[in-house]
């Protein structure tokens, strides 16, 4: 394919520009495919965010909503991007490579682009575990079979000595400078300012009460707790490094997991690494698994999103943000209910219950509740919720009373609630103000789980502020308690 794209030369940086949402094109010529190809694109200023798309077969690489995805490789991080094509990649063949640099930011994006080729260190395909002697570095790769449904558990046991572990979702050879996650003994002098360290940890720390339902028994990501771990290893207790990457953290990454292990000792050390992919559903405790099974049977064929979409059109409320649809996730909502300590005889309300997923989840998890109620405005969602709740009741005896009201949450009496939930993230301020006004008649001690915070008031205290997974991703959730 003849093009007049600029030819990139090995290790020579080229500056390019592209208007927002368009591509600038380059070519490069690869003769030697025994060496890994690395292409780096970096923004030259804050108004720039270049992404890399590469093809060997199509000169006009495109992607996105308006174009066909016709690239073979891509790297689309925020900020600088680095794309590596490995000799083992079946598509890595000699010839011309077409590089499309996509300007992600609006306006003129100015960027630099450079490529190099390096001999590769050895990288082992890890089936499950590997052991041996570690000189300085060893690299492994591991295929993830069920991204989005499984978590990755890595265990490294040093026979003796201090090790560091680096994990990446897209770099073949993760190291100190480039990795997605790391664990192990940190060389203290790299952390010149303790403040930086704490700040970095702050980004990692996620007060998700996940452990109650899906046991980890693994260090999650480097977090404050990691300090203890480091001390333990420094003490040479020979406790293995146990490291877990949660399902959600891997969800949007590619299917390969790349691991680098570094030996900090002067002598080689013996070591063993075990990598396991564990399906999340296999980690649930027996009771929860049974209840999730019923939940799935009841809800699997109920298409809340499309019912809502059709109803919004039909009832001519498409422009109203409060009708935006999204649902809770059973497993991730369970510990949030736990924070409210539901008691026998209590009443739960979901304000804007959709097809009733939140009602179904709490009814299954806390059958000792007196009543589970919900209110929904959209006609067909209300109908779907009513029939779904009837279906649920066939699996529950005894169980709480279940009641679905049709209408506006501002016109229904929910003052008997002990625990309330409202997936209020898209509710306009007037609706939130209206809810808050009605909350004055709730009893003291009532708990309110809300996605949108309430305006300043003197009736609620924020008990917890957490991040919880919903169908659209993780979102902030407040658990409030009525104090008057
Ligand atoms: C984000 S969805 C949450 C569905 C469900 N609670 C869940 O989490 O799985 C919010 C729901 O609130 C409903 N809604 C919005 N405004 C409402 C109002 N004023 N009264 C009753 N329902 C309302 C919407 O139609 C929608 O079904």
UniProtKB/TrEMBL annotation:
E.C. number: 2.1.1.360
GO terms under biological process: methylation; regulation of cell cycle
Domain called DOT1: residue spans: 197-484
GO cellular component: nucleus
Signal sequence, renumbered to the chain: none
Gene3D superfamilies: Vaccinia Virus protein VP39 (3.40.50.150)
Classification via CDD domains: AdoMet_MTases (cd02440)
Principal location: nucleus
Substrates-to-products reaction catalysed: L-lysyl(79)-[histone H3] + 3 S-adenosyl-L-methionine = N(6),N(6),N(6)-trimethyl-L-lysyl(79)-[histone H3] + 3 S-adenosyl-L-homocysteine + 3 H(+)
GO terms, molecular function: histone H3K79 trimethyltransferase activity
SUPFAM superfamilies linked to this entry: S-adenosyl-L-methionine-dependent methyltransferases (SSF53335)
Subcellular location: Nucleus
Alphabetically ordered keywords of this record: Chromatin regulator, Methyltransferase, Nucleus, S-adenosyl-L-methionine, Transferase
Enzyme class (EC, first level): transferase
Known function: Histone methyltransferase that specifically trimethylates histone H3 to form H3K79me3. This methylation is required for telomere silencing and for the pachytene checkpoint during the meiotic cell cycle by allowing the recruitment of RAD9 to double strand breaks. Nucleosomes are preferred as substrate compared to free histone.
Note: In contrast to other lysine histone methyltransferases, it does not contain a SET domain, suggesting the existence of another mechanism for methylation of lysine residues of histones.
Record family assignment: Belongs to the class I-like SAM-binding methyltransferase superfamily. DOT1 family.
Protein name: Histone-lysine N-methyltransferase, H3 lysine-79 specific
Native species: Stentor coeruleus
């Amino acid at each position: 394919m003849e093009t007049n794209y600029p030819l990139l030369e090995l290790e020579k940086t080229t500056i390019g520009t592209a208007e927002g949402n368009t591509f600038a094109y380059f070519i490069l010529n690869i003769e030697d495919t025994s060496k890994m190809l690395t292409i780096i694109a970096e923004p030259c200023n804050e108004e720039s965010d270049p992404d890399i798309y590469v093809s060997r077969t199509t000169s006009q690489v495109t992607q996105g909503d308006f174009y066909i995805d016709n690239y073979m490789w891509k790297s689309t991080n925020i900020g600088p991007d680095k794309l590596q094509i490995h000799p083992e990649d079946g598509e890595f063949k000699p010839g011309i490579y077409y590089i499309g640099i996509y300007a992600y930011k609006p306006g003129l994006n100015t960027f630099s682009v450079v490529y190099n080729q390096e001999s590769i260190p050895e990288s082992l395909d890890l089936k499950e575990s590997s052991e041996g002697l570690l000189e300085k570095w060893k690299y492994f790769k591991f295929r993830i079979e069920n991204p989005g449904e499984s978590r990755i558990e890595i265990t490294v046991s040093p026979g003796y000595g201090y090790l560091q572990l680096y994990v990446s979702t897209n770099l073949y050879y993760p190291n100190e400078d480039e990795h997605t996650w790391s664990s192990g003994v940190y060389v203290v002098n790299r952390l010149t300012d303790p403040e930086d360290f704490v700040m970095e940890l702050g980004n990692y720390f996620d007060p998700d009460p996940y452990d109650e339902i899906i046991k980890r028994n693994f260090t999650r990501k480097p977090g404050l707790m990691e300090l203890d771990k480091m001390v333990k290893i420094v003490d040479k207790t020979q406790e293995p490094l146990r490291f877990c990457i949660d399902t959600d953290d891997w969800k949007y990454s590619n299917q390969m997991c790349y691991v680098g292990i570094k030996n900090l000792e002067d002598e080689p050390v013996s070591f063993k690494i075990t990598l396991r992919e564990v399906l999340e559903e296999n980690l649930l405790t027996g009771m929860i698994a049974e209840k999730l099974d019923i939940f799935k049977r009841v809800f699997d064929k109920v298409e809340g999103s499309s019912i809502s979409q059709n109803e919004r059109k039909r009832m001519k409320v498409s422009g109203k943000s409060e009708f935006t649809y999204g649902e809770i996730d059973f497993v991730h909502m369970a510990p949030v209910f736990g924070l409210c300590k539901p008691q026998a005889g209590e009443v739960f309300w979901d304000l804007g219950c959709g097809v009733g997923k939140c009602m179904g989840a709490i009814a299954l998890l806390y059958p000792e509740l007196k009543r589970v109620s919900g209110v929904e405005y959209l006609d067909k969602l209300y109908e779907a919720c009513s029939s779904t709740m009837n279906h649920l009741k066939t699996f529950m005896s005894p169980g709480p009373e279940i009641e679905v009201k049709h209408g506006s949450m501002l016109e229904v009496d929910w003052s008997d609630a002990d625990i309330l939930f409202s997936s209020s993230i898209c509710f306009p301020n007037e609706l939130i103000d209206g809810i808050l006004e009605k909350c004055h008649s709730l009893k003291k001690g009532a708990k309110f789980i809300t996605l949108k915070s309430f305006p300043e008031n003197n009736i609620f205290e924020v008990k917890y502020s957490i991040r919880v997974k919903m169908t659209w991703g993780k979102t902030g959730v407040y658990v409030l308690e009525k104090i008057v």
